[in-house]
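Subgroup meeting minutes
Present: P.N., E.W., G.H.
Scribe: E.W.

1. P.N. recapped why we're keeping a running log of single-chain structure predictions: easier to compare across weeks, and new members can see raw inputs and outputs side by side.
2. G.H. added today's entry (221 aa).
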Amino acid sequence: MIWRRRRSPAGTSELASGQCHVAGATGFLWSAADALDVLDVLVVDEAAQMSLANVLAVSHTARRLILLGDPQQLDQPTQGTHPHGTGGSSLEHVLGGSQTIDPDRGLFFAETWRMNPPICDFDSELFYDSKLHPVPSCEKQVVLSNGPIKGSRLRSSPSSMPATRAIRLMTQIVMTIMNSNTRWIDRDGIERPVTLDDIIVITPRNAQVFERHPGVRVGTV
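Output recorded in log:
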């Protein structure tokens, strides 16, 4: 096996000569002229983060392409101004506006190992045509607490507020969790105390990252 992070003529020559059978690299290697037909199958990981133009640039590498990813996640980060549609990912073009892929065009992995059913139902209805379901063991995942933050569901608070007030609200919620004998049960049925390491705060503004309570993990997407 070889693993390249950048264009390397040696990488494609090793494949062409049969010295290795599996290779991993960025698009810089696979878009090179000497990468023509060196693979039987090219797997594009996180294809929802790779534009159609970039996938076409590497497609000469293999006879078959496998696009692997989730177009319902965040779009690829881009800089600059481009004509409408050019930033669309390869998977978006394959789906043609649908939320999930048709059976005759690909495979949709309909099980998640992360979310409790009430939370999964929300995401499934909103983004996956109600086709996404948790494995049965996810039903065990629940938060236990003497305070108000408990159970296994989504909660919301008003968001149209000044940044400083949002920071105070975030800190208040975190401290309420930490001071309420809060525990959680994982999908194996094991109960553990909730610590600051179990809590992640995602904020829309970079400035809010630095105005956090000590020990609380805060970051932007």
